[in-house]
Amino acid sequence: MTPRAALAGLLLCLLPVAGAQARTVYECLRDNRLSLSTAPEPGSKCKPRRVNDRKAKVPNFWGDQGPVRGNLYTTRINGKAVYSTRAIRGWKEVAEPVKIRAPRDSWAHEGYGEIGKPRLDVFAEQFRQAAKKTGVEDAWLRAIAHAESDFNARALSPKGAQGVMQLMPSLARAYGVADPFQSAQSIDGAARHIRDLMRRYKGDLVLVAAAYNAGTGAVEKYGGVPPYAETEAYVEKVQALYERYRSALKKPVARKS
């Protein structure tokens, strides 16, 4: 059984049996993340869905909607126990995390950098020039470089991503980057790619980070952040680093309304 089917089965096991094999669960969307709940989640856009208990064990049960991810949480609403796969403040965790690894042909990887002190001295002029040329914020470019390679211009990921900005070979070719291990070329090419992603996702930095990590195809497939453990960890890392770099550069953090 796949992790997503196991989680779906666990959620259904917690629903009360009413004699029939079809039950109702809710697909809930918030902040571009899909979850399942046994009742509409407060603050999410939810739609009911009738579920056959037996089908919960079928590997492709969730189909194009993408696998459900995360832990299982519970609370009581109007005296009734409610369960959700989304971490909601005040709800109690009742299951171990279920993580889905990215497919072998995916670009997704967590990156070599860790959340830590901003490094403003590495390739500083190259970041400034790329930011000026493309309009992509200097702090965002640095956050990506930090998360991707920890500023190692010779970095090579298991997926084949190369250089300080960890460009995949096909992406490097698309942006005319002749030598992805040359830092100025890598940063310039990545900045142009990020500019295009920001236009595509209307400035939504969560989707920009997800697409940079896993590709636009994966974001389109899942209608938001792909549920890969690598991508989810990467997006959180970049967001945290972005705040630190903006603070270090004396600028307030932009927040999408």
UniProtKB/TrEMBL annotation:
The keyword Signal applies. GO terms for biological process: peptidoglycan metabolic process. CDD domains: LT-like. GO terms for cellular component: membrane. Keywords: Signal. Residues 127-224 form the Transglycosylase SLT domain. The keyword Signal applies. InterPro entries: Lysozyme-like_dom_sf, Transglyc_AS, Transglycosylase_SLT_dom_1. SUPFAM superfamilies: Lysozyme-like (SSF53955). One of its GO terms (molecular function) is peptidoglycan lytic transglycosylase activity. Belongs to the transglycosylase Slt family. This is Lytic transglycosylase. It comes from Lysobacter dokdonensis DS-58.
